[in-house]
């Protein structure tokens, strides 16, 4: 969406994209405490993360557990903090509840599924492209084709509907999701995945998609006892000054990681020179989990019969890489 300019107050060009990264501390400000040169860290960055060297305020930096690889760390903060805060801070997920998550094969979707598994008897309904089903079928309770009539399938399995809907698609899915929401349920909007993948063809169709959201009748909401909420981690961090709240969430998530209850899902690693191809993979919905830009990775040479006609990809929002990297590896992620 950044590349396409479909965000509020887009930054001026030229710019370096990217909002999160992992690496090794090379320098410290005079007043920085709690960190040393050589510490392994992950961080949020207000742009500029797609780089070999990144500078960010200390309140956005977190130490990496000893057994977490750099690629895992680069895939950890955005996905898991977003998923955790939507589930527990906004929707108040509790034992026995049910959750519908769109784009279940993406980074946030997989983080949602893992966090739901930490609460007893939570039922997770997920939508995803059919070709991803085999890879993610064990992470959710019920999985549906994103293009099928999932409303009827959910109602067949849960006549009352669901307690929480996490919607990164918007548009027509908003009405469908609200129809599935139980009384006192929470519907959370947190992205525009259709715009990222190019399914929304223009700004006007994008506006029409959001207009579907804005048609929600507030009188009907209070009559049906339903809640609609929005969530933006970047606004929370960089515009609303809630870095302290986010740090507490990161600490809890690292605790869950150390207990081996959650683990970042890394789709693939790419050299910085391969960012165009990486974005195309996201654009084509080909990824399961997060794509990582690794500053030390050598680009894969093109074979003679490889296509060089890949179109420019849409900007972000999602198998596992082992722990074999040494401490000098510093992968970065959008």
From TrEMBL:
Where is composition skewed (Basic and acidic residues) in this entry? 323-334
Q: Which domain of life is it from?
A: Eukaryota
Q: What Pfam families is this protein classified in?
A: ADH_N, ADH_zinc_N_2
Report keywords, A-Z: Oxidoreductase
Q: Which spans does this entry mark as compositional bias, Acidic residues?
A: 312-322
* Domain (Enoyl reductase (ER)): residue spans on this chain: 5-293
* Classification via Gene3D superfamilies: Medium-chain alcohol dehydrogenases, catalytic domain, NAD(P)-binding Rossmann-like Domain
* Keyword Acyltransferase among UniProt keywords: no
Query: Which is an annotated GO molecular function term of this record?
Result: zinc ion binding
Is-annotated flag, keyword Transcription? no
Q: Where is this region: Disordered?
A: 299-334
> What family does the entry list?
Belongs to the zinc-containing alcohol dehydrogenase family. Quinone oxidoreductase subfamily.
Name this polypeptide is given: Enoyl reductase (ER) domain-containing protein
């Amino acid at each position: 969406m950044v590349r396409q300019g479909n965000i509020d107050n887009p930054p001026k060009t030229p710019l370096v994209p990217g909002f999160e990264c992992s690496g090794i501390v090379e320098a410290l400000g005079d007043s920085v405490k709690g960190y040393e040169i050589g510490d392994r860290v992950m961080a949020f960055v207000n742009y500029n993360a797609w780089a070999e060297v990144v500078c960010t305020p200390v309140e956005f930096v977190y130490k990496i557990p000893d057994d977490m690889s750099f690629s895992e760390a680069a895939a950890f903060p955005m996905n898991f903090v977003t998923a955790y805060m939507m589930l527990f801070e906004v929707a108040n997920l509790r034992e026995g509840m049910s959750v519908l998550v769109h784009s279940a094969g993406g980074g946030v979707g997989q983080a949602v599924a893992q966090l739901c598994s930490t609460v007893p008897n939570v039922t997770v309904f997920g939508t995803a492209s059919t070709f991803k089903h085999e890879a993610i079928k064990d992470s959710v309770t019920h999985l549906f084709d994103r293009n099928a009539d999932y409303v009827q399938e959910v109602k067949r399995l849960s006549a009352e509907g669901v307690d929480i809907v996490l919607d990164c698609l918007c548009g027509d899915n908003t009405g469908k999701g609200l129809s599935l929401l139980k009384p006192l349920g929470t519907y959370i909007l947190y992205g525009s995945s259709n715009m990222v993948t190019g399914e929304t063809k223009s700004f006007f169709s994008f506006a029409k998609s959001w207009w579907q959201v804005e048609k929600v009748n507030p009188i009907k909401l209070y009559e049906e006892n339903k809640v609609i909420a929005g969530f933006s981690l970047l606004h929370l961090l960089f515009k609303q000054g809630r870095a302290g709240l986010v740090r507490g969430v990161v600490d809890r998530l690292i605790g869950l990681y150390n207990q081996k209850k959650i683990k970042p899902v890394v789709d693939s690693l790419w050299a910085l020179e391969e960012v165009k191809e990486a974005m195309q993979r996201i654009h084509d919905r080909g990824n399961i989990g997060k794509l990582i830009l690794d500053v030390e990775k050598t680009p894969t040479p093109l074979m003679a019969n490889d296509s060089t006609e890949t179109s420019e990809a849409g900007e972000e929002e999602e198998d596992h890489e082992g722990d074999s990297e040494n401490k000098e590896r510093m992968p970065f992620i959008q």
